[in-house]
Amino acid sequence: MNILKKTAFLLFTLCVVSCTTTKKEMNKSNSYANDTHSYAKPNEAVAKHLLLDVEVDFDKEVIKGTAAYSIESTNASEIVFDAKNLKIHQTTVDGKEVAFSLGTNDPILGQSLTIPITKNAKKVAISYETTDKTEALQFLNPQQTADKAFPFLLTQGQAILTRTWIPIQDSPQVRLTYTAKVKVPKELMAIMSAENPKVKSENGQYSFEMRQPISPYLIALAVGDLVYKEISPRTGVYAEKSMIDKVHYEFADMEKMVNAAENLYGTYVWDQFDVVVLPPSFPFGGMENPRLTFATPTVVAGDRSLTSLIAHELAHSWSGNLVTNATWNDFWLNEGFTVYFEMRIMEALYGKEYANMLASIGRQDLAEQLESFHDKPEATHLKLDLKGKNPDDGMNSIAYDKGYLFLRTLEETVGRYKMDTFLKGYFNKHAFSTMTTEKFIKYLNTELLEKNKVSFNINDWVYNAGVPANAAKIVSDKFQKVEEAIENWKKGTLSDHELCAKDWNIQQKIHFIRNIPATISIEKFTTLDNACQFSSATNSYIAMVWFEQAINHNYHANNVDVHIENFLMTVGRRWYVSTLYRAFKRADKLEEAKRIYEKARPNYHSVTVNTIDDMLGVSY
Ligand SMILES: [Zn+2]
Fold it and tell me: Which of 13-27, 90-104, 233-247, 422-436 has the lowest mean pLDDT?
């Protein structure tokens, strides 16, 4: 029965891939949107398949080798790639060396790499190596890993960093398949966002294959002393040895999550869903690299309390990886849909109240983000204009939480059944293609609103600032209990010890800490910490929100300063560390922030470094 199921599934996958490809082939001319964050001209000449053949040199901290592409062109005399801080050695077209040219270097975009081609050119190969200015790669020394025995390498491609380790047409709309040969030191295992061997090779040679066309930002590589442990035949985890059992326990519900997601919006078409837990410098909570989500160890809490992150990355297998934002101005299509889908998965597994708690946390994040953008309202539009800016600027709560609120409001307007039918059809119809905001709005109008004779203020949501008045109200009963407790605690009718003894889950504790009034006295803050021991919390999320409050309240007891410094020295997750550095800055403690940052900075990935350099106004 298993074999039959798998065969049927394979046939389905092949059909989705080849049918979509055929459709695309038929109208490929001028089908790509204008992407201001890429030099590539895919309407003229486009890469369809990458054969990557590289070696990872841990001594020199470089990757070197060849990126060879199968290309298609419409009478073009050249093909243009993106390259940033790469050394390009040689380029060939169908095996013959040709002279390439590099354009001027833009600090955000890097350079265009132009290679002359003839009308019938089929293959272009680029031999290259990375430099110490690479932004995607992070080489870690053994001390920065869990087992402290071997070095580690991780990549982060989103948004436009893949071009700093592979010369590529680095626009999300240029989907391509890839195969890769990667050579690493024989003590280490290499894994990619592709079909993985799951075991260490004897000679350090690894081969990978990604048969479904994906966007360049989703090409990912991790190299370390990793082991694999299966959760179900199609789900499992990679981690360093000392972490693997903890990680396996933490993410035990992965198969249930995939099932819940499939019940909502259709078959999981990527075959395998694995997660690799990386060292703590990884700049994001998670990155939805297809077949192999990259995750921060800060979500391995020991009590499965932060696993909504896995639901989020899994949801990207539909929203983001299957239907992809055409440009970074449309980023909300990736993230707003994914947060909505994440909440639905969490609701299916753990109930509506749990999902509402998570949504309420996002709603508070959104309120704070809107407040921080009060002097630049255009940054609160769902559709952005990031021309001339780093696309990273658009990666904030607006795309995620305003995007979610839009979809939730839409759901409450049309009803869940119609919403789900619409979304299932949307993912199915646009599988393996890219989506602009305008194309989505047109589809939404015809397939959901007009069909059901419903009117909805789409333009207000997408092209205007702030949150429209018809936004869904998110109410969590469990959070209301927390808010009542805060009131009683403020009045003194609830003691610190009674408060700490409450049977609250992690999200309730987070809600409590985030909503400690700014006006409470330092004495009350101190007795609270003495009773609840928040300063020495082991849950990373609790620690982060408590440390933020400690900085806000100018609180220094219970060794909290040491705990904050240790946290910033070890963790590189951008959301966490930027929250704390921002708190220092707001509290007029910029010098303290800079003192810690100078020491911690070498531990952070470039994604985090860029944000914090900018925030603290420093450059090194
Ligand atoms: Zn996401």
Answer: 13-27
Contact 81, 169 (CB under 8 A): yes
In the reported structure, the alpha carbon of residue 345 is separated from the centroid of ligand 1 by a whole-number distance in angstroms of 14
Q: Is the pLDDT of residue 48 over 70?
A: yes
Nearest to 253 by CA among 191, 337, 334, 309: 309
Whether CATH 3.40.50.300 fits 482-616: no
CA of 474 to the centre of ligand 1 (A): 21
- Between the CA of 309 and the centroid of ligand 1 the distance, in Å, is 9
56 SS3 class = strand
- Quote the CA–CA distance of 411 and 619 in Å, as a whole number: 46
Catalytic residue among 250, 288, 313, 342: 313
User: What is the reported pLDDT for 519?
Assistant: 95
Q: Quick check: 22 pLDDT over 90?
A: no
540 Cα: distance to centroid of ligand 1 (angstroms): 19
Nearest CA to 323 out of 448, 195, 422, 252 is that of 422
Distance, in Å, from the CA atom of 289 to the CA atom of 320, rounded to the nearest integer, reads 10
Q: What is the pTM for the complete model shown?
A: 0.94
User: In the CATH scheme, what is the homologous superfamily, with its name and number, of domain 40-224?
Assistant: tricorn interacting facor f3 domain (2.60.40.1730)
Dihedral angle of Cα 380, 381, 385, 391, to the nearest 10 degrees = 50
Would you state the pLDDT for residue 30? Answer: 55
163: CA distance to ligand 1 center in Å?
21
The pLDDT of residue 4 is above 80: no
d(C-alpha 313, C-alpha 296), whole Å: 12
Report the separation in Å between the CA atom of 337 and the middle of ligand 1, taken as the mean of its atom positions. 9
Q: How many CB atoms lie within 10 A of CB 16?
A: 17
Residue 220, SS3?
coil
pLDDT, one tens digit per residue, over 337-381 is 999 999 999 999 999 999 999 999 999 999 999 999 999 999 999
Is 1.10.390.10 the CATH classification of the domain at 323-463? yes
Question: 620 alpha carbon to ligand 1 midpoint, in Å?
Answer: 30
How distant is the alpha carbon of residue 612 from its chain centre? 18
Residue among 400, 555, 576, 597 flagged as catalytic: 400
Give 306's contacts (C-beta < 8 A, 6+ positions apart).
298, 299, 506, 539, 540, 541
Active site residue 209: no
Active site residue 400: yes
